[in-house]
Design a protein that fits this description.
- The structure is a single chain.
- The chain is globular, with a radius of gyration of 17 Å.
- The N and C termini lie far apart (about 35 Å).
- The longest helix has 19 residues.
- Helices cover about 40% and strands about 15% of the residues.
- The chain contains 7 helices and 9 strands, in the order αββαβαβαββαβαβαβ.
- By secondary structure, it is α/β, with parallel strands linked by helices.
- The strands form 2 sheets. The protein has a 7-stranded mixed sheet with strand order 1-8-7-2-5-3-4, sandwiched between helices. A two-stranded parallel sheet has the order 6-9.
- It holds the Pfam family Acyltransferase.
- This is Lysophospholipid acyltransferase family protein.
- GO terms for molecular function: acyltransferase activity.
């Protein structure tokens, strides 16, 4: 499954969508790194994976990995090949479980992608980031590479099941080093300062208007 994704599906997707990539040289070829991006569409995860130049891990609901039968095993294998890491989001400690899973990826020297906004932006603006990205950076020492995604919301607009060809631009920024805050992970003020610095870098790359409030989805 890993070979299928790497040598067939990934090149095919790059050929069809031909993403324009800037700053790919800023992504370290090895060692732990956090890719922090804006979030406009469901395809964002695939776009980052196709352009980062190295395997990237993400979090996914644990129930996706426990399906029964051939279909369930195939889905679990496919998600693992794409770099998804199972995490139980159904319990009261889901946030801690997610951070622990992400730390595991980074401590093993992997690349981990995160959307600090916590959800897709439905109004096109970049919203205030949650401090999980800061907790990861401060606790692991991993650099943060900001990522600006442009045009992905037009590849798969909200409500559309299948992506369509559209020009996508991916901008990777210079890695942010927060080693100056070593040992200060427990400070909420430091976590907020680190997160705000990351969001400022993302805003400059994505050219989105920044709003200093958390994004809330409209009531169903």
């Amino acid at each position: 499954m890993h070979l299928l994704v790497r040598w067939l599906l990934a090149p095919l997707a790059r050929f069809i969508y031909r993403p324009v990539v800037h700053g790919a040289e800023w992504v370290p070829k090895d060692g732990p790194v956090i890719l922090a991006a804006n979030h406009r569409a469901a395809v964002d995860t695939a776009v980052i994976a196709l352009t980062a130049g190295r395997p990237v891990s993400y979090l996914a609901k644990a129930e996706y990995f426990v399906g029964k039968g051939l279909k369930g095993r195939a889905l679990a294998s496919f998600l693992s090949a794409l770099g998804y890491v199972p995490v139980d989001r159904a319990n009261a400690k889901a946030g801690l479980a997610a951070l622990q899973a992400a730390r595991g990826v980074l401590e093993a020297g992997g690349a981990f992608a995160i959307y600090p906004e916590g959800t897709r932006s439905l109004d096109g603006r970049l919203h205030r980031g949650h401090t999980g990205v800061a907790s990861l950076a401060l606790s692991t020492g991993a650099p943060v590479v900001p990522v600006g995604l442009i045009g992905t919301e037009l590849v798969q607009p909200v409500g559309k099941k299948f992506p369509r060809p559209y020009k996508v631009v991916v901008r990777f920024g210079q890695p942010l080093d927060f080693s100056r805050y070593e040992g200060l992970e427990g400070s909420s003020a430091i976590r907020r300062a680190v997160t705000d610095e990351v969001m400022d870098a993302i805003a400059r790359l994505s050219h989105q208007e920044y709003v200093d409030t958390y994004h809330e989805r409209p009531a169903a």
